[in-house]
Design brief:
This protein has about 650 residues and is an alpha+beta fold. The protein has 21 helices and 22 strands. The structure holds one RNA strand of 77 nucleotides.
RNA sequence: GGGGGCGUAGCUCAGUUGGUUAGAGCGUCGGCCUGUCACGCCGAAGGUCGCGGGUUCGAGUCCCGUCGCUCCCGCCA
């Protein structure tokens, strides 16, 4: 018999009854009834109940076992007595009667119990990550992560992609995030950098003629964490393809993501054809470039209804700035004073002056003729309203009907005609509400998007239990940097402008208005409001590249110094190419139903980029520092006396 | 770097208007218990109420500062 086990703890079934077996595992739970003692023995594969009673030679030893001790037990598989089977356990029909116990590893009192679902502080969980990882949920998440990565690899290979490895020690890149630096021993004063992404390498792989690249690529960025952004390091499914248009990239990647989501979503529906939403439209409709399409709320520009209206606050805003607009955020079923006031308070908590609203309540009063005249028999949105009026009339409630009575100070000042036009445009009905934001959109878009999300959540409009994908396309190439009064790259400087090269080369860098309307062939994948990926068709022409950087204020010498290697490569026969890089951690997070990356990463760092288990970052010896030609200069302690 | 929330037993949390000796459940330890599987019953240990200062006859409770955790902003394609 094997030194440690003949079976795993998830293996035994009724068919194994009578076998002499050997199991090894952790004491998950001990239930001591005095005369009979049950231990749930756990390993990676499952749980098996092992039993000892006073007739067992191991009874005394069994009584000394404690939670999470690692033991080997020998014994005979026997059926559980009738009525005591556990249908929740795959091994629940049987148990092992213990003949012998060997303690393989004792455990001191646990700082974090493995058994049970109790919440534990993040700090404890991270410090004792190996205990946390024994727990069912994390253990399963990590296994699922592995299965997802297997599936991604398989699907990529099936599409003709080949996996490459790129350097971990590379050069600091001037754009993008803060680099992690590694001092060079051989070159005093010089540093390697860990790659923020293998961006330049994957482009060079295309230029090297390999055609279809992918990698489960570690990426390192020294930026502050968020719940959906690990500090320090994370993984991307990095992809690049040669001789492709945007459509080709979408056609290659969409089935991979849809397939892997369908495989691991647990039956939740996944978008069949990812809609393509231009960046500008996403901002206007959803207030963000990563919209959660499970939320049905779509914002609309209703400036024309307010322009010159009796609601002077908005009318004046519109009159005072040509850029100003009024956007409406519809709130189906939000038509109550209580809800609208709650949203208003929320907005104030967000630092806004408030959140204007109109809501339409149902009111059993005489039907005013002038209002009735505004109803449109062909408007499907008004159908239920008309039906209710008809029904009341048939019930003989003469002179009574339900009307939608617009309420709130905005409606009073706006007047019935404009209010009704608004209701019609937004397709709202009695019992609904609408909220407004008014100013120059650039200043309120972010808040409007947050309000849309908040309203959707509060009203239960968000269809959980599904995965709603979309592509966001046509990102702006440049943006205006107000602080430095200059034009900046909006995203990746390597993206191809969405303009014929000749037209782009002919651009006048001083023509700011024109340049700020330029789009790049750049795209994101968004799922349920989470940005999964960013990508682009790359700029493979040195002349266009030089021009693109010139517009952003980099002269050729700077470009040469920063991206010289890349530029030379492009000048020696570069194929048109493009790709993207979906975030693996975020994909796994969505598929595990978690809302924090730390729940799907084996050994994550905390928010301050510390590994509490390994004690990273740590001090190093003076000798190590000397070899690296490094002398720390710590910030001086502030004297608070 | 900035803002919000939180900080009471190992864990989750309660703690009244500022008032006697700070509680419960879970966990741990001990005892009892022959069919449990969140076993049950009895008992015990376990507290600088994050830390420092202030107000007060009296502070877990009020005020100020500070530290830690967390979420967000900045930052991050």
């Amino acid at each position: 018999m094997h030194r440690y086990r003949s079976h795993t703890c998830g293996a035994l079934r009724a068919g194994d009854i009578g076998l002499n077996v050997r199991l090894s595992g952790w004491c998950h739970r001990v239930r001591d009834h005095g005369g009979v003692l049950f231990i749930d023995l756990r390993d990676h594969y499952g749980l098996t109940q092992v039993v000892a009673d006073p007739d067992s030679p191991a009874f005394d030893v069994a009584g000394t076992l404690r939670a999470e001790w690692v033991v080997r037990i020998d014994g005979k598989v026997r059926p559980r007595p009738e009525g005591t089977e556990n249908p929740d356990l795959p091994t629940g029909a049987v148990e092992v009667y213990i003949r012998e116990i060997e303690v393989l590893g004792r455990a001191a009192e646990l700082p974090l119990p493995v058994f049970g679902e109790q919440e534990y502080p993040e700090e404890t969980r991270l410090k004792y990550r190996f205990l946390d990882l024994r727990r069912e949920r994390l253990h399963q998440n990590i296994m699922k992560r592995g299965a997802i990565i297997d599936s991604l690899r398989r699907r990529m290979k099936e599409q003709g992609f080949f996996e490459f490895q790129t350097p971990i020690l590379t050069a600091s890149s001037p754009e993008g995030a803060r680099d992690y630096l590694v001092p060079s021993r051989l070159h005093p004063g010089k540093f390697y950098a860990l790659p923020q992404a293998p961006q330049q390498f994957k482009q060079l792989i295309m230029i090297s003629g390999f055609d279809r690249y992918f990698q489960i690529a570690p990426c390192f960025r020294d930026e502050d964490a968020r719940a959906d952004r690990s500090p320090g390091e994370f993984y991307q499914l990095d992809i690049e393809m040669s001789f492709v248009t945007q459509d080709d990239v979408f056609a290659a990647v969409e089935p991979v993501l849809r397939g892997v989501f369908e495989e691991f979503s647990g039956g939740k529906p996944v978008t069949k054809d990812f809609p393509r939403i231009p960046y500008g439209e996403a901002i206007q409709r959803y207030g963000t470039d990563k919209p959660d399409l499970r939320n049905p709320i779509v914002m609309q520009d209703v400036s024309e209804i307010f322009r010159g209206s009796g609601f002077k606050v908005f009318a004046n805003i519109l009159a005072n700035s040509a850029k100003a607009a009024v956007w409406a955020i519809p709130a189906p079923r939000g038509g109550s004073r209580a809800f609208c006031d709650r949203m208003n308070s929320w907005a104030q908590g967000e630092g806004q002056p408030g959140l204007g609203y109109i809501f339409w309540r149902e009111d059993e009063q005489a039907w005013p003729g002038d209002f009735q005249a505004t109803l449109d028999p062909s408007d499907q949105n008004q159908k239920d309203l008309r039906d209710r009026v008809d029904k009341l009339a048939k019930e003989g409630r003469v002179g009574q009907a339900i009307r939608a009575l617009a309420a709130g100070p905005i409606a009073n000042n706006l007047g019935p005609k404009r209010t009704e036009a608004l209701r019609a445009q937004l397709g709202l009905k009695a019992g609904d509400a609408v909220f407004f934001v008014a100013s120059e959109p650039a200043t309120f878009v972010k808040f409007a998007g947050a309000a849309r999300t908040k309203i959707g959540e509060e009203l239960g409009l968000i269809a959980k239990d599904r995965f709603e994908f979309c592509w966001i396309v046509d990102f702006p190439m440049y943006e205006w940097n107000e602080e430095e009064k200059k034009i900046d790259f909006s995203h990746n400087p390597f993206s191809m402008p969405n303009l014929p090269p000749e037209d782009f080369l002919a651009l006048d860098p001083a023509h700011r208005e024109k340049i700020l309307t330029l789009r790049a062939v750049q795209y994101d994948i968004v799922c349920n409001g989470v940005e999964l990926s960013s990508g682009a068709i790359r700029n493979h022409r040195p002349d266009v590249m030089k021009k693109a950087f010139a517009i952003a204020g980099y002269d050729e010498a700077v470009l040469e110094r920063k991206f010289g290697g890349m530029l030379h490569a492009l000048a020696l026969g570069a194929p048109p190419h493009g790709g993207l890089a979906p975030g693996i951690d975020r994909i796994v997070m969505l598929l595990c139903g978690e809302d924090n990356l730390r729940e799907v990463v084996l050994f994550p760092m905390n928010q301050r980029a510390e590994d509490l288990m390994m004690g990273a970052p740590s001090e190093v010896t003076p000798r190590q520092l000397r070899e690296l030609h490094i002398r720390p200069s710590r910030p001086e302690q502030r004297d608070l006396s």
